[in-house]
Amino acid sequence: MWYLCVFYHRLLDYRRPEVQSLAELFGGPGAGDAVEWRMPENHHADSPFHLVRLPGDESLAAQIANRSLLVKGIYELWGHGATYEELEKAVREYPEERKLPYLTPESTFKIVVDSFGKVISFPEQNEIIKSLTYIPFKGRVNLKKPDHKFFVMETDDYGCNNGLPPVVQRTTFFGREVGAADRHLLPTYQLKSRKYIGPTAMDAEMAFLMANQGLARPGKLVYDPFVGTGSILVAAAHFGAMTMGADIDIRVVRDGRGPDCNIWSNFEQYKLPEPLCVLRADNNVPPWRPGLKEIFDAIICDPPYGVRAGGRKSGGRKLIKGTVAPYTVPDEKRDSHIPSTAPYSLAECVHDLLHLAARMLVMGGRLVFFFPVVREDGVTNLAKYPEHPCFKLIATCEQILSMRYSRVLLTMVKVGPYTEVVEKAAQERHREFRENHHKWMEEGNLHSAVFSPAAGQAADGKPFIDRDSKPKYRGKYV
Amino acid sequence: MRLLTHNMLASNARGAVTGYPLKLQAVKWSTKEVEPNPYFLRGILPKLDWPALVAATHALGLPELLPEAPPTDAELSAEGAAEEEGSALRCLHRALLEIHIEEGTLVCPDTERCFPISRGVPNMLLHEDEVRN
Ligand SMILES: C[S@@+](CC[C@H](N)C(=O)[O-])C[C@H]1O[C@@H](n2cnc3c(N)ncnc32)[C@H](O)[C@@H]1O
């Protein structure tokens, strides 16, 4: 069935993928792909009003809306029009058998008037509600806990950008609410009131969106190889998933800021089950036993890319100085020795992450991670995203961080099995990265190899770096 | 660290052949109750190395906890198994998820390299001269 889906006006790129992920989560395999979208006539793609066709019955739509962060509400649309006359005509034409069950005398209801891009005063709202007499409401009004909630939503025809996407023509929608987001989560989980946070802790809203992209739910196991203070796993655990994490930095994963302020206390604070395990390990040299594979349902992470906090890997001085005089740790110092580390190039970090995911995710499991992209003159270079034979990229959601950087949340699904061929290729590449450490430090970082415009020549000679300019709203990217 | 994690880890230091299974030497461990999830346990069972899990329970002095052969899927899905004290499902759940090793060591069977577990966190990081080329 088609519904009206009204979004919050934020994180625009994340909105549709979130709905599709939740469709898959609640509707089962294939339900995400079955979702269809349309824009109402005269609406800009950034408009909060979208028409969505969801598989299954209404309870699926309700589940999606209730778990989502970015859906303000999903509505059964009874009609819309440019004027109140047109709206009346449309609602009258909407089939009686769809309307009458919600208008019965024994039910309670409430009508809310909402607007987008304009303010409607209370007296005006009352006028609008009174004008709906052509709808035979038989039930009693109950403002607190109505059985059925109806919405009148008006958008103005301010034409161009006043902080919101342009609407060419005024539209009024009338619909019955099927489900709405619960953003109460956000004040509860905001970082401001979290006990243990670090400079790169993921903000609560983004962590929940990532957990939704990863289909976190009870009975599933979610892994974060760059766990830091655990903010992503907190979100996954809130949705009932079991969690596991690793980090190279022992101070972050074990010590925190003391016995009551560490990863574990973050889970305790929200009464969530603590992670099954937190490891100190380097994702470049992962400690998994031979033969172990396909055990995680999702890998969700914010890798160390150097934009804010650079990655490190084992092998320190030896890699940096070369093999001329390999450093050996004296035996008497082994227990207290603090291993030195070498910088971890972006290209290698991404390679290791994809390999980890290819091996350790179940078929159909999801890899959700941030990928940095360079912007120039306030415009994003559409970079080539990482690829892997075991994965299909299903969503790319950009969040602009500054004039110079964006980060793109990539969602990939494991579609191919982890075979010997895949394993051999990864080992080969791992060796190549180690042998050419210096070369990769120069070429494998943000401003080169992966992103450099010079490398971006497609076969036909045209640069594949396309430019994408996003509109700002009230001077900000949303 | 729980025994599920122990079942997943190996030493990847230079000189290790398989580096597995790591010998478990627990200095301090405790039991914390966790809600059993039969669906999760049934999914994880085929991924486990059963003999290594049994050996780990023995190392903790719990030789009675797990049988020599893994439970069958039918045993795990039996009606009421999650509630029944001592059922195959509850024992598996207890072994995998309710035992927490707080302090101890994981020892590589090939090289005797010790990986310390402190405050519940196994430290699997290698020294720079242990990383394989
Ligand atoms: C961007 S932060 C992630 C922060 C995390 N999302 C949080 O909530 O605090 C990246 C983390 O990766 C860790 N890291 C860097 N290099 C690593 C490596 N080679 N293996 C594992 N973790 C690494 C850093 O210590 C840091 O905690």
Question: What is the gist of this entry?
Answer:
The complex is a heterodimer of chains A (478) and B (133). Chain A has helices at 12-27, 58-67, 84-93, 96-99, 122-130, 185-189, 204-213, 231-238, 250-255, 263-269, 316-321, 346-360, 420-435, 437-443, and strands at 2-7, 36-38, 49-53, 71-81, 108-116, 140-141, 148-155, 171-180, 221-224, 242-247, 277-280, 296-301, 311-314, 341-344, 361-376, 379-382, 391-400, 405-414, 466-468.
Helix-strand blueprint:
The complex is a heterodimer of chains A (478) and B (133).
Chain A: E1 2-7, H1 12-27, E2 36-38, E3 49-53, H2 58-67, E4 71-81, H3 84-93, H4 96-99, E5 108-116, H5 122-130, E6 140-141, E7 148-155, E8 171-180, H6 185-189, H7 204-213, E9 221-224, H8 231-238, E10 242-247, H9 250-255, H10 263-269, E11 277-280, E12 296-301, E13 311-314, H11 316-321, E14 341-344, H12 346-360, E15 361-376, E16 379-382, E17 391-400, E18 405-414, H13 420-435, H14 437-443, E19 466-468
Parallel strand pairs in A: 5-6, 5-7, 9-10, 9-12, 10-11, 12-15
Antiparallel strand pairs in A: 1-3, 1-4, 2-3, 4-8, 7-8, 13-14, 15-16, 15-18, 16-19, 17-18
Chain B: H1 3-8, E1 23-31, H2 38-44, H3 50-59, H4 73-77, H5 88-98, E2 99-107, E3 114-118, E4 121-122
Antiparallel strand pairs in B: 1-2, 2-3, 3-4
The structure holds S-adenosylmethionine (SAM).
S-adenosylmethionine binds next to helix 8, strand 10 and strand 13 of chain A.
Give a written overview of the molecule.
The complex is a heterodimer of chains A (478) and B (133). Chain A is α/β, with parallel strands linked by helices and 478 residues long. Chain A has 2 domains: 2-183, VC0802-like (2-Layer Sandwich), CATH 3.30.2130; 186-327 and 337-451, Rossmann fold. In chain A, strand 9 (221-224), helix 8 (231-238) and strand 10 form a beta-alpha-beta unit. Chain A is built from 14 helices and 19 strands. Chain B has one domain: N-terminal domain of TfIIb (Single Sheet), CATH 2.20.25.10. Chain B is built from 5 helices and 4 strands; from the N terminus they run H-E-H-H-H-H-E-E-E. Chain B has helices at residues 3-8, 38-44, 50-59, 73-77, 88-98, and strands at 23-31, 99-107, 114-118, 121-122. In chain B, strands 1-2-3-4 form a 4-stranded antiparallel beta sheet. In chain B, a hairpin with a 6-residue loop joins strand 2 (99-107) and strand 3 (114-118). S-adenosylmethionine binds at residues 198, 200-202, 225-226, 228-232, 246-249, 252, 282-284, 302, 304, 309, 311-313, 344 of chain A.
